[in-house]
Design a protein that fits this description.
Aminopeptidase; seven-stranded mixed sheet; alpha+beta; 149 residues
Length: 149
Amino acid sequence: MTVSVLPMSPADVPAIGEIERRNYVIPWSDSIFRDCIKAGYRGFVLKHEDTLLGYAILQIGFKESHVLNICVDKPYQERGYARLLLAHMEKMSMAQSAEMMFLEVRPSNPRARALYEANGFNEISVRKNYYDTPTGREDAVVMAKALSA
């Protein structure tokens, strides 16, 4: 299946919101995605023809970037698409002279953590009580990767 990574647009937000709600217990709202686009964060969608398979949000600042959200819809997981989105974000970060890439991941999400570790991210700290859960709060593992030109 041929897929394309394209810039996220406001027209993508309803489909992104549906995927977000299918894949997360505590999803981002559609308005958060619209705000990210308005704020100038780099949003990407992964598509096959007209089907949205996944998306990612990246913030790029002075010499660093931050993965804010990355998701591949359940029917398309375990096909390397998250790795493709992550590689695209790394490429975009380096094109903007970022030297480090950061992200947070839930300890309760070992598949995501394994993906990041396999792609060169290392744990650098823990943010206590960072994420909401249905029963309270959960820490976040902060991970980083040095980027090279």
